[in-house]
Amino acid sequence: MGYLRTIASRNNFPRLIPGDFLKEKMTQTIEINDFQKRVLLCAEEVDAFLGGGRGGGKSSALALLALRHIEQYGNKARILYIRRTYKGLADFELLTRELFGMVYGTAARYNGAEHIWKFPNGGYLELGQLESHSDYAKYQGRSFTLLLVDEAGQFPTPDLLDILRSNLRGPKDVPIRMIVAANPGGTGHHWLAKRYVFQAGPWKTFLEMKSKRQWVYCPSTFAGNQFIDREQYSDQLQSSCPDDPELLRAWVHGDWAVNRGAYFASVLDESRNAVDPWTAIPETYGRKWETYLSHDFGSSAPSATYIIAKSPGGEAFEKFFPRDSLILVDELATAKRDRPNEGLGWTVPILAEEIVAMCKRWDIQPIGCADDAIFAKTGSGAGSISDEFVRSGVRFSPAKKADRLTGWNIMRRLLADAGKPDMPGLYISRGCEYFWQTVPYLGRDPKRTEDVDSQSPDHGADAARYGCLWQKRVAKISPLIC
Questions:
Q1: Which has the minimum average pLDDT: 6-10, 261-265, 276-280, 406-410?
Q2: How confident is the model at residue 474 (pLDDT cuts 50, 70, 90)?
Q3: CB 160 within 8 A of CB 112
Q4: Does 5 have pLDDT greater than 60?
Q5: β-sheet bridge partners, residue 292
Q6: Across the strands, what pairs with 314?
Q7: Is the dihedral of CA 376, 377, 380, 385 positive or negative?
Q8: One-character DSSP codes across 391-437
Q9: Rounded to whole angstroms, how far apart are CA atoms 463 and 399?
Q10: Is residue 450 exposed (0-12), middle (13-18) or buried (19+ Cβ within 10 Å)?
């Protein structure tokens, strides 16, 4: 949350937020930092992405934008502030109580049960929550003139926010506008960076193709916020991620560069881990490499299946792979196009048919490991999902995933050791498009930073993790006769 300060003498704040009430009755003047001032000076016809590091004052900037909109457009102003959960509204609610109390005293009324502010000039601000498509029902058919989205990095995909944008409607003399605020390194890091950060330089307008609107990227850092104890805040950030310099860089400097702040940022490197697509399973010293499948099941969510080849030590396709190195050779991912967290709804027989076809192309047996959950027996007496796969010609064994962190640590070590001449590593074919689309950008769990955020599209990462855990038991699996 950002911070505001009041001072006894007036400065230029009333000129940034025009309004008769402010000019005539406001007894205190609000002091703002340079970032907030610059955001307020952006043209109202331009949407804005407030995409800085932590502690820069983004939430306060949102509150100031709401105040200005209320003062300018009075009873025509209809504002919706959105967070992913109701719990996340608490900080912003306190901020608005402070700000609006300074300006309006008791003339502005807040209904805590409905999370609604009503202002003396007829303006309206609602603090709302949006976590799923069912939550959107309470906004459907309603109109807002200003849409404020805070902590947008908690949204794994932009779908819900794109739908909500359809509620922006207003009179001709009231410009509609959307403001999005986020820190780098969250679940939505990739789509936010792609859509808003790498389109144009900071504070320069650009056309965002999805909304067909002009946007501006407004970065900030805590170093520019004179209203906090910057030295103490820096110490807090460093203590939050002592073993992840990339995440610290994202939080401190607001760095949205590719992979910054991502879970695998410090160990996954395209130049080391990516290999050109193979055309066949190679032979080394006269024998083929060991191969197996690694699978993460999903239907409404995507499933991900990898063919993994284990090196006996030696060269393959002009590259040396130390003994026990793992190569993700090919993949089958059932995600919707441009929606990496939504599955195609395939049944087990359809999925198994495609897995068998992939294995035939590589001349390998459809045998491997999968998420332990698919081996649980159902109450209907139909057996387990694993049993369905067996009937369809695919045999999986439990990956024994146990502790997630153990699996992630093994996978991270293999990724980090890729390219070393005497250490086994994890390599991924450039043909594994879903892996490269999702895994490099996975964020950290906000409450458990040593874990991957499970709200993000982690299905490819999970499948790879199972393969890393299971690979030492390859030889124990008996052949499957198809």
A1: 6-10
A2: very low
A3: no
A4: no
A5: 308
A6: 321
A7: positive
A8: HTT-EEEE----SHHHHHHHHHHHHHHTT-TTS--EEEETT-HHHHH
A9: 10
A10: middle
- Specify the pLDDT at position 86: 86
Contact 373/396 with Cβ under 8 angstroms? no
Using alpha carbons, list the distances in angstroms from residue 10 to 18, 32, 163.
Answer: 14, 12, 41
What are the C-alpha distances in Å from 428 to residues 275, 327, 334?
A: 6, 6, 18
Pairwise CA distance, residues 385 & 302, whole Å? 15
The contacts of residue 15 (CB under 8 Å, 6+ apart) are none
Measured on CA atoms in the order 137, 140, 141, 143, is the torsion positive or negative? Answer: positive
Name the E strands within 32-114: 47-50, 78-83, 109-111
- Greater confidence (87 vs 66) lies with 66
Residues in the chain, total: 482
CA distance 184 to 154: 10
Which residue do the tokens 């949205």 mark? 256
Q: What pLDDT does 347 receive?
A: 94
User: Residue 268: beta bridge partners?
Assistant: none
* Strands 78-83 and 314-316, bridge-based pairing: unpaired
Tokens of 81: 């502030």
Q: Percentage of the chain surpassing pLDDT 90? A: 54
pLDDT band at residue 234 using 50, 70 and 90 as cut-offs: confident
pLDDT reported for residue 25: 53
Phi, psi of 253 (to 5 degrees): -100, -5
Half-sphere exposure of 52 (CA within 13 A, CB side): 25
Residue 28 confidence (pLDDT): 64
E strand intervals along 16-108 = 29-31, 47-50, 78-83
Tokens of 280: 């066949």
